[in-house]
Specification:
440 residues; two-stranded antiparallel sheet; 8 strands; disordered C terminus
Length: 440
């Protein structure tokens, strides 16, 4: 039961450490830039760094184009420039690009990154890729049935690379002549050199079977992962949270993880919901990875007391009622965003999410929606009632909901007009009804 300095229990810390093991590490080497640093003069090093920065920018632009609107389960594709080897001596001492992505429970993200690396080597014939994950040589593990008997994931270190869009496996030496070029035990520099030279590789027939087993893992990408990975659902959530998810759809992954992994301190912050605030609840269609949607649905929670008045009518409905399901999912997402905000405040990292103070107005994730803080008058129905929700659903057909978050002035004007129309008796507005709806 010992607590760490941040108040996290030892069990929670161990669980987070285990989760962080699910990651893939990939390195990109250039034929001319990735040369041993001991051969590079100091005057030429800056020029090589500049060329490597251009290569990184080109790779990231290409990846952004093919990834498009994919929502990563945990972390996305990334690259940074590395000079020399690392603490585990897993790379040759040269300039190269390195990326590390935690994919969590979604193994499809790992194979999506592998597919991206294959596409990069197709596009650039002068780069070579080496990739491993937490289990080691995962490509060899997945193609184990087609490997030669002598080749195993244990002795296959620094033997497998991706080049020209295909796998390249350094064979073991069969003759004394080959033993001169191919060391019995490869180091990072030997493996990279042999892959770039391309003189020695496994037999074509063996490589063909390994290649077929390898490509089955990402067959149909990227359309397959976009279709199978995405799920759409309806949620009713506070307007500020809805606007955040609308303008930053990729934050849904971190939002769900923050809600599912919340601790005692996070739960305490969710009681006040100081960032989300009270106000209008609106319906919204949300896209989310299927695995995260399953985690969101199976998480039990207690509705924050600060939303008791707004959610009382919904939570009194039967458990299987669509409106109750939508409000429960919306509350979970709002709590997840609240946890993200409070953690960012504690870590001093608000600029990472572009959170802003409530009294300020910005176009980022912290944009304040003044209309969400309006309190309806006692005359007529309240905005959070079932009657208002039904009326708002009808207005959805006119395009109001789709345009409601384009700007603060639009939100104030449209909701004010809608409220007046909704609260006015039908007889008094009979003649001007069509005109009022047109204004909305």
């Amino acid at each position: 039961r010992a607590l760490s300095s941040e108040g996290e229990s030892a069990m929670e810390a161990s669980f987070r450490a285990i989760q962080s093991l699910d990651k893939v590490v990939y390195r990109i080497f250039h034929d001319k830039i990735s040369v041993p640093l001991k051969r590079v003069e100091e005057s030429s090093l800056n020029r090589l760094r500049t060329q490597m920065e251009k290569l990184r920018d080109e790779c990231l632009r290409f990846v952004k184009h093919i990834v498009k609107d994919h929502i990563w389960h945990k972390e996305g594709f990334n690259l940074k420039i590395v000079e020399g080897s690392d603490e585990k001596d897993m790379a040759p001492s040269c300039l190269h690009l390195k990326g590390v992505t935690e994919f969590g429970d979604n193994i499809d993200d790992e194979w999506f990154i592998t597919w991206i690396l294959v596409q990069l080597t197709k596009r650039r014939k002068d780069i070579t890729v080496h990739t491993v994950d937490s289990d080691g040589q995962y490509i060899l593990i997945e193609t184990a049935n087609e490997l030669p008997k002598w080749l195993t994931p244990e002795n296959g270190e620094f033997r497998l690379y991706i080049r020209h869009g295909n796998l390249f496996i350094v064979p073991r030496p069969k003759t004394p002549t080959q033993a001169v070029d191919i060391p019995v035990k490869l180091n990072p520099g030997d493996g990279l050199r042999l892959a770039q030279e391309g003189k020695h590789c496994l037999e074509a027939g063996v490589m063909k079977k390994i290649e077929q087993a390898f490509r089955k893992k990402f067959a149909g990408f990227p359309n397959k992962i976009r279709k199978n990975n995405s799920h759409y659902f309806r949620a009713i959530l506070p307007q500020r949270a809805a606007q955040t998810l609308s303008s930053h759809p990729s934050i849904i992954s971190e939002c769900v993880r923050a809600f599912c992994d919340r601790d005692t301190l996070d739960t305490r912050a969710c009681r006040k919901m100081s960032w989300t605030g009270k106000g209008q609840f609106v319906p919204q269609r949300i896209r989310i990875p299927r695995l995260l949607f399953a985690q969101l649905c199976h998480q039990k929670f207690y509705s924050p007391s600060v939303f008791r008045d707004e959610t009382k009518a919904y939570l009194s409905l039967p458990v299987q009622n669509p409106k109750r399901i939508a409000i429960e999912r919306g509350l979970k997402l709002a709590m997840g965003l609240e946890v993200i905000y409070q953690r960012a405040v504690k870590a001093g990292a608000l600029e990472r999410y572009n959170f802003e103070k409530k009294e300020e107005t910005s176009s980022g994730i912290g944009e304040e929606v003044k209309a969400s803080q309006e309190q309806p008058s006692s005359e007529g129905e309240t905005f959070s009632s079932l009657a208002w929700e039904t009326y708002l659903d009808r207005l959805k057909k006119t395009g109001l909901v789709q345009r409601i978050f384009r700007g603060i002035e639009t939100v104030e004007r449209t909701l004010k007009t809608s409220k007046e129309k909704f609260s006015t008796p039908y007889g008094k507005e009979k003649e001007g009804g069509k005109k009022a709806i047109g204004q909305v």
